[in-house]
């Protein structure tokens, strides 16, 4: 329910919790590959790093390719993202709009001596899904980070020692936690341990450390089943981690919390959470429209004569649409870790990572947080090294 008091004015037209539903995912177009995409400054032809092609109005494309970067900022998107480059914009389904990670008046203005990347990975579940597990996704993130930071690029040879600040959106935070654990795992490459060692801060934005609202799990599961019967490549695996009683979810979070006592993981963490309910009926309305169109076509189904199955799914979807789909997607208790800083934004879940402009109050809070972590980065890394040296000498 919305809070009482002054009327609520929507800041922009982003969905309250939008798991985008494009016709083809970014990962599908890239052959399922995951990769880091540099948003700022616009890269020269760096070794193995893909340039980002902005829409014409995106003036960040005009920034110089060279800069003396003192920090790398890595943003990781969440579940079911089909338009990876749009998810950080004020409307996730439109190529136009301000991307606060790239707009020259937004995050680049706050931390101009940085490199800013998005990590684009296949988080699909109801279409173009992968069979990979969280371990596989985490190892690929580490591989891409290692590749980026050891490449010869326009910022000089200090890539491996440059501090990192992570910004993880919702489910992307679980991927980051898993990557931290895998970085120091005995069965992984020793060079990956440099990733947490050089991490100067991490911001988790609506990450469901103890699961999401049950309605979100149920609607995502329904979408997955509909996709399966329409012949899509689907997977229930990632969706299952939204459940509050998921053993793997608990293991991912507990493993990270146990690492907090190690010097490599002595860096500031802030957990950001929403304070407004989101209405998921708009997103489910799109699912209903797509299913209705497929039912009219009556062709292309994986299991042949399955009208009865689709009719059952249609009825279940109709019943879902008639229920109350407003919810606090990830409440404060689930989105925060007791031992770390927390920050409330007066927005719905989907707007935790979307800001209309540099004057937006939520953006100013996040920009100040990133700026603070970047400003303290050298000291954080120095403190870690002192602790490691002290342990080595005893």
From TrEMBL:
Cited InterPro entries: AB_hydrolase_fold (IPR029058), SERAC1 (IPR052374)
Compositionally biased spans, kind Basic and acidic residues: 1-15
Gene3D superfamilies, per database record: alpha/beta hydrolase
Region (Disordered): 1-23
PANTHER family reported for this sequence: DUF676 DOMAIN-CONTAINING PROTEIN, PROTEIN SERAC1
Protein name: Uncharacterized protein
Taxonomic source organism: Bionectria ochroleuca
